[in-house]
Amino acid sequence: MANLLSIPVPSDIVFPESARAAAVREDWKDLALLGDGLAVQRLRSQLQRLAPYFRTALLIGERGTGREAAARRLHSLSPVAAGPFVLCPALEWMSAGDEYKDLMESAQRGTLFIQEIERLPLPLQAQMLVRLQKLDGMVKARTAETRVIASSLSDLRTLTSTGQFRQDLYGRISVVEIRLTPLRERTEDLQASCAALLKRYQDSGKGREISHIAEDAIDRMMAHAWPGNFEELREVVEQALFTAAREGGDGAGAVLVQHLPELAQREERIQAGLELAASPAVERLEDVLRRHVVDVLSRCAGNKVRAAELLGISRSTLYRMLDAAS
């Protein structure tokens, strides 16, 4: 297996600033754009091809697959790259009221990135659709120049078929739809990500004594399922680098498989979760729903109107569920 430091790291993706400045930054998300596998090559090609022309895009992928990195890449290659890139977590937009209703104005001549749009309840999905339609009119009148990118952890086509997501809103945001591949299906790119993390650690001045990651450690990581994707990879590799630098000894200069105890602990937790899921002692759906309703009502300080809006149900339905819970 090739030494990790010999693996090329595309400078336009990982290190857009000076090499040292990029190496010490804390943004792990660009790891998802590294590698030579077919999936990431296709992703980079899609972003490059679509960026100059898109008005709205939808990014679908698991947590940690680099949805924000892909969104920032689209923005940086678009005609509005010099404008703002405005993050808009759907749950914050939902709970903050008027403060977040003006985010589209804040993204004027830039890009608005709506994170986890599937978490908006139906009433707020309607509000979002109205604002996007208003933006359409402003763009046609040439009074606005704003790109909108939405991301989702879930397949919105499935949610629309079950009535959990508005079909008209899905149609509005999915003109361009990009799906991000999880790390477990991109293990051929794991070494490039490890190389980037190692270089960042070395250039930070904290770990110059670590020269490479040994083959047994790479093989061990290749066998892991990575449910947290590139975010989890960053956590595991950084912990291993710290452990290797601290312990030294016979393996000085290298990250060895024994420097990955956290990986075994994570797999034990995954296995425990699978065993729990397979257990016959499963809660009734009615009990789960009732507990969720009571929890939402508590977070709304007893405001039933607000709780019904957040849950995406009518007040009469909320009252019936509360009556059943009492």
Summarize the structure.
By secondary structure, this protein is α/β, with parallel strands linked by helices.
Ordered list of secondary-structure elements with their pairings:
Elements (H helix, E strand, L loop, with lengths): L10 H4 L4 H6 L13 H13 L5 E5 L6 H10 L8 E5 H7 L1 H4 L1 H4 L4 E5 L6 H19 L6 E6 L3 H6 L5 H7 L3 E3 L10 H14 L8 E2 L1 H8 L6 H19 L6 E2 L5 H18 L6 H15 L4 H8 L3 H11 L1
Parallel strand pairs: 1-4, 1-5, 2-3, 3-4, 6-7
Helix pairs in contact: 11-13, 15-16, 15-17, 16-17
What does this structure look like?
The structure is a single chain. It is built from 17 helices and 7 strands. It is α/β, with parallel strands linked by helices and 326 residues long. It starts with 10 loop residues before the first helix and ends with a helix. The protein is globular, with a radius of gyration of 23 Å. The chain has 3 domains: 4-10 and 186-278, Orthogonal Bundle (Helicase, Ruva Protein, domain 3), CATH 1.10.8; 38-183, P-loop containing nucleotide triphosphate hydrolases (Rossmann fold, 3-Layer(aba) Sandwich); 285-325, Arc Repressor Mutant, subunit A (Orthogonal Bundle), CATH 1.10.10. The strands form 2 sheets. A 5-stranded parallel β-sheet has the order 2-3-4-1-5. A two-stranded parallel ribbon has the order 6-7. Helix 15 (285-299) crosses helix 16 (304-311). It comes from Granulicella rosea. One of its GO terms (molecular function) is sequence-specific DNA binding. This is Regulatory protein, Fis family. Residues 33-242 form the Sigma-54 factor interaction domain. One of its GO terms (biological process) is regulation of DNA-templated transcription.
